[in-house]
Here is the input.
Amino acid sequence: MAAHTEWMTFFGAKSYRTRAAISDREVIAEADYDWSAVPGALRVGENAVANIKRATDYWILTGMSPDPGVYEIKQSPWVAEVSLGADNLRHYMVVGDDDSVDVLAKGWDWEAGQTV
Here is the structure.
């Protein structure tokens, strides 16, 4: 079976932290975040079937995942605690199946790798 390698690089990183999943059903406390900017997030009044159709249509139209598992946390208290705004840092969160990683960095880049 072929697999794809992908690389995500954070530049100007100042700090990071890892967190284990909070339960068997959730990696992070999803209710603590505003998901309205995530294209694949369930919308108010939308059922699961409509959500899957809308997310699939988005993926086909744009070629981008509607819920990539990598997010920027806007107005993050962690940025204020660490940098006091002087470093122009942004808070990124990468959510996996069993844990998550938070990174404070100036930005990031993603590169698709080769099929292995």
